[in-house]
Amino acid sequence: MAPRGSRPMLARAALAGSAACFGLMAVLARKLTQPAMGFTPGHLAVLRFLVGIVLCLALFGIRPKLYAPRGYRVLISRGVTGGLVVVLYFYALARIPAGQAGILYNLFPVMATALSLHFFRERPTVHLLLAVLLASAGVVLVLGQGRVAITLGRGELAALGAAFFAATSAIAIRAARPTNNATTIFFFFSLVGLPVVAPFALSPWPRAPLPWMMGILMSFMAFLAQLLMAEAYGSLSISEAAVWLQLTPVATYLLALPLLGEPVTGFGLAGVLLTVGGVAYGTLLGNRRPG
């Protein structure tokens, strides 16, 4: 077991790794939803949950004691909210530009910080709140590219709904972590979330082997990302985790250059620097208390 003083540092490293895995997952998902690949967002959501269930069952077979659910209500709520996030976000992406959907969806760490005041009586420092705002502003630059004009139609409301359920999902993970390990939490997320997204995968599936190999890799990245995120919530407050979670769209943006050929712009680089600066600021000063 890691010494108590090193747990926050390990949790921050886990969130950084989670952001990288989520970023690679998103880039692969973009590639797989191109017409030549044949996958739809609904297909990918179902595949992601199915692979997660299989991997969790394999881990439970190797280490039977790893399956130790406590508090089924919070575990099931994690699965339901996670499934709603996927459905609403995909609906938003079908109706509005990806940049706008991403900006609205990535409000969820800010929402989770606000919810933590009620559910966990967490009182983040002024430095940590400022870090969340700085990192969020960087995400707006990365995704908006300096051209942010958001109305309030069905797509925007769906993205905001996805952000809200992502925030409640984060609260559920934080509530479950004291009595459940990360693998058990992810297993229920996949098991309960699968029937939520299944109706969106009724169209014909691709048959070529390459898209399936890439789809399984995407699902494995999602598995690692979710495990690392759930593990980190055992040692960090919601507000500090919110700062680190803003690295996810930055990782997606940077990985899209070599893997998809998407260009890097001045606004994007400024957003990357601002987000990373916000994360560093929150880590260095966010948890200091006056003597």
Automatic annotation (TrEMBL):
One of its GO terms (cellular component) is membrane. Pfam families: EamA (PF00892). InterPro entries: EamA_dom (IPR000620), EmrE-like (IPR037185). Its main location: membrane. Residues 15-143, 154-280 form the EamA domain. It is a multi-pass membrane protein. It comes from the Bacteria. It is found in: Membrane. The chain crosses the membrane at residues 45-62, 74-91, 103-120, 127-145, 157-173, 185-205, 211-229, 241-260, 266-286. Keywords: Membrane, Transmembrane, Transmembrane helix. This is EamA domain-containing protein. The lineage of its organism: Bacteria, Pseudomonadati, Acidobacteriota, Holophagae, Holophagales.
